[in-house]
Specification:
Number of domains: 2
CATH class of the largest domain: Mainly Beta
CATH superfamily of the largest domain: glycosyl hydrolase (family 31)
CATH architecture of the largest domain: Sandwich
CATH topology of the largest domain: Immunoglobulin-like
Structural class: alpha+beta
Helix content: 10-25%
Number of strands: 28
Distance between the termini: 22 Å
Radius of gyration: 31 Å
Number of helices: 8
Largest sheet: 10 strands, antiparallel
Strand content: 15-25%
C-alpha cells in the first residue's frame, strides 16, 4: 500500500506578499480520518527528473519540464498525473469595477435648421457614445424650424442611461443566479491509469459498475442533489459524491482520492492501445510498459478549491481498500437488525395505523423487525416533536412494537421549520447556528415544513448542539429501541436551483456531506 498527496500549497494566494484571499481547503477532520503520517523518502535527482522512493517497490518519478508525475509499483507504471499536460490552476483576480456607459449628449441645431451631436469626435469615445445611443434607443426629436430667420431650439432628447458593466462574475441557471463572489477559480488535471481496461467508483451515479466513456456525453458530475426520478445510465449528479476512483487487473490495483468537495466533473476515456506519444514512452525500460497495454485516461475538473490527490497503489483490492480506509476512515458496522425486514412507506397516518400494520404481520406470520415513520408523525413538520393528535401516546406505541422485539425508526431531516414560537428554531437562531447568506443573514429556503433554515453542520459547535437535541429531550426514551433516519444527506431546497442551496451561502462544501 502506498499513497501520495499532491497539494496545491504553492498557489499565488498563499505565497504572494499580499494574497487576494486564501483558497478553501478541507481540514483533515472534514473528510479524512486523520492527517496522513509522513514517511521517510529517498530522492534520486536526474537530469530532467527526480525519482522519489517510499519503499523498494514504490516510486514516484517527477518530470520537471513539462511537469508530470509517474507512480510506479514493482517497476511498472500504474498511474500518471498530468501526462497530457491538462493541469489547470485558475489564478484569482481582482474584482472588476463597474464602468458606467457613456451618456449621449443632446443635439445642437445648426443655422440651417440641421442638427449635430455636441461633443462627438472621431475615435473610440465618440463611437462608443454614438453606439450607446443607438443600442439604448435614445431618442432625439427632430428640430423644428420657424420662419426663415427664427431658430427654435429642439426639445432635449429623452436619454436612457445604459446600465453599468457587470462588476462581478455572476452566472444564471434556470432563472437562478450564482453570484460567484470570488470569480473563476477552477482547478483540474488529467490522471491516467496504465495497464487497466476499466475504472470504477466516483459514486453516486445511476451507471454501470465499470464506468463508461464520456466522449459522447457530459462528464460524470459530483455534486450532491436531491434528484427526483433520475435518469438511468446517465452521468448526472445524485444524492452523494465520493471522489474516489479505482482500477484493477491481475496483481495490481490503483486508486485516487480527489480531496476537493467543490462541484467536480470527470471525463473518462478507455483504450486498449497505449499512447506511445506521452511522456511515459520516455521512461527507461525497467519502468516501461508494453505498447499493447490498455489505459484509461481521466480528467478531473473542480469549480474551486485546490488540487489535493491521494494515489493508492497495491497488489490487491483488499490492500487498496485498507489504504483507503486508513485515509478516510472505516464504515461503522451496522446493527444486525439492519439485515432484517423493514416496513416503511409514506406515510402511516396515526398510531392506530401503525398498530394495525404491526398486528397484521403477526396474523399472517410474516417476519418484521423494524417499523419506519416518515415526516407526518411530527407536529407541522417540526421534527423531534410528536403530533399530539395523531400520535398522542408514542411511548405506548413503541412499547407495542418492542413487545415483539421490534424497533422503531423515525425521520429527522436536517432542515428546521422557521417558527418564532418554536424553542428549537429560536435557540439555533439566537446562537447564530444557521447557514448564512452572503449578507450574513440566516438562509431561508423552502422544504417540507415550508420556510426553513439549515444548521451549518460542519461547524463543531453546531454538531454538539444538534446531538444535544437527541440526548437532552424526551423525544427518545433512554434505552428504547428507537432510531433516527436522515432522509436528506444534502441541502434539499425546493425553491433553489436544482433543488439545492445557493453556492454563495456559507455552506459551500456540498460534497463533503456523505464523506
Amino acid at each position: 500500500m502506498y499513497y501520495v498527496s499532491i497539494g496545491a500549497t504553492s498557489e499565488p494566494a498563499k505565497t504572494a506578499p499580499h494574497p487576494i484571499r486564501p483558497r478553501y481547503r478541507l481540514s483533515p477532520v472534514d473528510a479524512l480520518a486523520q492527517e496522513p503520517p509522513k514517511l521517510p523518502l529517498k530522492f534520486q535527482p536526474g537530469k530532467d527528473n527526480i525519482i522519489i522512493s517510499g519503499s523498494e517497490n514504490d516510486k514516484v518519478k517527477v518530470y520537471l519540464k513539462p511537469f508530470s508525475l509517474s507512480f510506479i509499483r514493482n517497476k511498472t507504471v500504474l498511474v500518471s498525473v498530468n501526462e497530457r499536460g491538462l493541469l489547470n490552476f485558475e489564478h484569482q483576480q481582482e474584482k472588476p469595477q463597474a464602468v458606467p456607459a457613456p451618456v449621449p449628449e443632446a443635439e445642437n441645431v445648426t443655422e440651417d435648421g440641421g442638427s449635430k451631436v455636441a461633443g462627438t469626435v472621431e475615435g473610440e469615445s465618440g463611437e462608443a457614445a454614438t453606439q450607446s445611443s443607438i443600442e439604448n434607443n435614445s431618442s432625439v426629436e427632430e428640430s423644428t424650424v420657424a420662419p426663415e430667420t427664427t431658430v427654435v431650439p429642439p426639445t432635449p432628447p429623452e436619454t436612457t442611461v445604459a446600465p453599468p458593466a457587470p462588476a462581478d462574475w455572476s452566472e444564471t441557471f434556470k432563472g437562478h443566479r450564482d453570484s460567484r463572489p470570488y470569480g473563476p477559480t477552477s482547478v483540474g488535471v488529467d490522471v491516467t491509469f496504465h495497464g487497466f481496461e476499466f475504472v470504477y467508483g466516483i459514486p453516486e451515479h445511476a451507471e454501470s459498475f465499470a464506468l463508461k466513456d464520456t466522449e459522447s456525453t457530459d462528464p460524470y458530475r459530483l455534486y450532491n442533489l436531491d434528484v427526483f426520478e433520475y435518469e438511468l445510465y446517465n452521468p448526472m449528479a445524485l444524492y452523494g459524491s465520493v471522489p474516489v476512483m479505482w482500477a484493477h487487473r491481475e496483481n495490481a490495483t490503483a486508486g485516487i482520492f480527489w480531496h476537493n468537495p467543490a462541484e467536480t466533473w470527470i471525463d473518462v476515456k478507455s483504450s486498449k492501445q497505449s499512447d506511445s506519444s506521452g511522456l511515459l514512452s520516455k521512461l527507461p525500460r525497467f519502468f516501461s510498459r508494453s505498447e499493447s497495454d490498455p489505459n484509461v485516461r481521466t480528467r478531473w475538473m473542480s469549480e474551486s478549491g485546490v488540487i489535493d490527490i491521494f494515489v493508492m497503489l497495491a497488489d490487491s483490492p483488499s490492500s487498496a481498500q485498507r489504504a483507503y480506509a486508513s485515509l478516510t476512515g472505516t464504515t461503522r458496522l451496522p446493527p444486525l437488525f439492519a439485515l432484517a425486514y423493514h416496513q416503511c412507506r409514506w406515510n402511516y397516518n396515526d398510531e392506530q395505523d401503525v398498530s394495525t400494520v404491526n398486528a397484521n404481520f403477526d396474523v399472517h406470520n410474516l417476519p418484521m423487525d423494524v417499523m419506519w415513520l416518515d415526516i407526518e408523525y411530527s407536529d407541522g413538520k417540526r421534527y423531534l416533536v410528536w403530533d399530539k393528535t395523531k400520535f398522542s401516546d408514542p411511548n405506548g406505541m413503541l412499547a407495542n412494537l418492542t413487545a415483539n422485539d421490534r424497533k422503531l425508526v423515525v425521520v429527522v431531516d436536517p432542515h428546521i421549520k422557521r417558527d418564532s414560537n418554536w424553542n428549537i428554531f429560536k435557540d439555533a437562531e439566537s446562537k447564530g447556528l444557521y447557514v448564512k447568506t452572503p449578507d450574513s443573514g440566516d438562509f431561508d429556503g423552502w422544504c417540507w415544513p415550508g420556510s426553513s433554515s439549515w444548521p451549518d453542520y460542519l461547524r463543531p459547535e453546531v454538531q454538539d448542539w444538534w446531538a444535544n437535541l437527541f440526548t437532552s429531550s424526551d423525544f427518545i426514551r433512554e434505552g428504547s429501541m428507537f432510531y433516527v433516519w436522515n432522509d436528506m444527506n444534502e441541502p434539499s431546497v425546493f425553491s433553489g436551483a436544482e433543488i439545492t442551496m445557493p453556492k454563495a451561502s456559507s455552506l459551500l462544501r456540498f460534497s463533503v456531506y456523505p464523506l
